[in-house]
Amino acid sequence: MLGSGPDLSFKTVESDEFVTAIKKGYTEDKMMKIVMENPTEHTLFRIKDGMIWTKNRKGEDVLCVPRTLMGDKSVIGMILDQAHSTLGHYGYQRTSEYIRRWYWW
Fold first, then answer.
1. If DSSP codes are grouped into helix, strand and coil, which group holds residue 77?
2. Distance (Å, rounded) from C-alpha 91 to C-alpha 16?
3. Which residue has the higher pLDDT, 84 or 64?
4. Of the four listed, 50, 71, 92, 95, which is most buried by Cβ atoms within 10 Å?
5. pTM
6. Is the pLDDT of residue 10 over 90?
């Protein structure tokens, strides 16, 4: 099962640059900005250490990723690239399932 594969989150969440880009992105992404401004009205989300979290289908905490850039690269694109590097060529469906174990957008 892909959900039990290598942990993708540690490769990104541990990076200060990644965390800074995510937090900055929350101010730029329309939906994420609304959640940050009034979290009590959006009960599917919670804020911890300035980061927005929600639950995946298995009830596990996943990081909400805004549509933003880190330098000149899309943060979402970087996550996709990291998953591809970690998994290899599993195809869209299996890669998507794997990513959803740690991230939501």
1. helix
2. 30
3. 64
4. 95
5. 0.84
6. no
Whole-number mean pLDDT of the chain?
88
> Which helix H or strand E contains 24, and what residues bound it?
helix 16-28
Q: Evaluate whether 35 touches 27 at the Cβ level (below 8 Å).
A: no
Q: SS3 of 7, please?
A: coil
Cβ-contact 38, 47 below 8 angstroms:
no
Which of these ranges, 42-46, 78-82, 91-95, has the smallest mean pLDDT? Answer: 91-95
Rg (C-alpha) for the chain, rounded Å, is 14
Domain ranges of the chain: 2-104
| DSSP bridge partners of 53 | 46, 63
| Beta bridge mates, 2 | none
Q: Which two tokens stand for residue 19?
A: 């965390």
Closest CA to 64 of 42, 86, 82, 40: 42
Residue 2 banded pLDDT, cuts 50, 70, 90: very low
Relative orientation angle of helices 16-28 and 30-37, to the nearest 10 degrees: 90
